[in-house]
Specification:
With 361 residues, this protein is mainly β. It is 8% helix and 51% strand. It is found in: Cell outer membrane.
């Protein structure tokens, strides 16, 4: 009897230890809102949209303790639309948002491989945009945060540990073409955090060449994006600032290039962006007022400039549920084709109002 009890106790202890070493979490966001858009060639559009503040998603995140401060990690994340239940991408990818596996060391940093965000986009969404890339005021409306500037497949990412407030992030995306440099993407960021200050400098480099191996490489040049993103928490308010430079083919792309015309408007290959914004906590810090102003300065002859102002409010109904409301207006110049969208959708016109709810689990 004693031997049986001892055996059960040992097995229970081993089971608990194994459970403590491995952990898998299911997480997600369900976000939906009513969106009213104005100013596009489609006229006034009112619709139910998914992913207004944050893209609706479901994901699986796991870690395994390998000992000695080393862990194996993975993330698999897919986006979906609440309005109709479909995947939120045209390519029908199962894990279109993130899919990576790697190792994390307490002393050496983190190395991951797969489909991942670029350091440039992380700087914009995590540091520089008071709307955090969502709602009608999203910085994605004017800053070039789409396509592979946002995330890329076939990538390797290394993140350093934090040293005296400094940390780094390095990104390499394989082009997987006959010429090794064709289609590849390079990115890097340096961050600094100290008290209320959070600052990050990020860079993205995209090789637009194509090489099939059956014909000479088609040389299309390099697209480059650099970004300075800063926020400072004064407790009574948090101030935000961003400045970006974009040069070369595909350094920017209109999210909706035919919003106002039947012919696609060509994107600039030389532009500057800047943003100033603020978050103000209210209602005992359960709510926050958000505002921003941003501008695009096109350096090409076409001079397709634009500016946007935006105002929003988010209120924490509970720990996991948030209600939101926002409005933004873009002024396009000389035929520019910037539109007011949200986190997931590009938008159809130069102004938009949205109201909705986000639940996290």
């Amino acid at each position: 009897m004693k031997k049986t009890l001892i055996s059960v106790a040992v097995l229970g202890a081993m089971s608990s230890a194994a459970f403590a070493q491995s952990n898998v979490t299911i997480y997600g966001i369900v976000d939906a809102g009513i969106v009213s858009e104005r100013g596009g060639k489609a006229g006034n559009v009112t619709k139910l949209s998914s992913g207004v503040a944050n893209a609706s998603r479901i994901g699986f995140r796991g870690t395994e303790d390998l000992g000695g401060g080393l862990s194996a990690i993975f993330t698999l994340e897919t986006g979906y639309r609440v309005d109709d239940g479909a995947l939120d991408n045209s390519n029908n990818q199962l894990f279109n948002r993130q899919a990576f596996v790697g190792l994390r060391s307490n002393t050496a940093g983190t190395l991951t491989v797969g489909r991942q965000y670029t350091p440039w986009y992380n700087a914009l969404a995590q540091v520089g945009d008071p709307f955090q890339a969502g709602l009608a005021g999203s910085a994605k409306n004017l800053f070039p945060a789409n396509g592979i500037n946002l995330r890329n497949s076939n990538s390797v990412v290394y993140q350093t540990p934090v040293f005296s407030g400094f940390s780094g992030e390095f990104f390499y995306g394989f082009g997987e073409q006959a010429e090794s440099s064709a289609g590849r993407q390079l990115g890097a960021a340096v961050s600094y955090t100290n008290g209320g200050l959070n600052a990050r400098i990020a860079y993205n480099n995209r090789n637009n060449d194509t090489a099939t191996g059956l014909a000479p490489t088609i040389e299309r040049g390099i697209g480059r994006n650099s970004l300075l993103a800063v926020n400072y928490d004064f407790n009574v308010a948090k101030a935000y600032f961003m400045y970006g430079q974009n040069k070369g083919l595909n350094s920017i792309a209109y999210a909706n290039s035919t919003a106002y015309t039947t012919t696609a408007v060509p994107a600039s290959q030389d532009s500057r962006d800047w943003l100033a914004g603020v978050q103000v906590p209210v209602a005992g810090k359960t709510g926050k007022i958000i505002a921003s102003y941003m501008r695009v300065d096109d350096k090409e002859i076409a001079n397709r400039d634009a500016h946007q102002w935006a105002l929003g409010y988010m209120h924490d109904i509970s720990k996991r549920t948030t209600g939101y409301i926002s409005y933004a207006k873009i002024t396009n110049k000389n035929g520019a084709s910037y539109t007011v969208g949200g986190n997931t959708e590009a938008g159809t016109g130069d102004s938009a109002f949205n109201v909705g709810v986000r639940h996290s689990f």
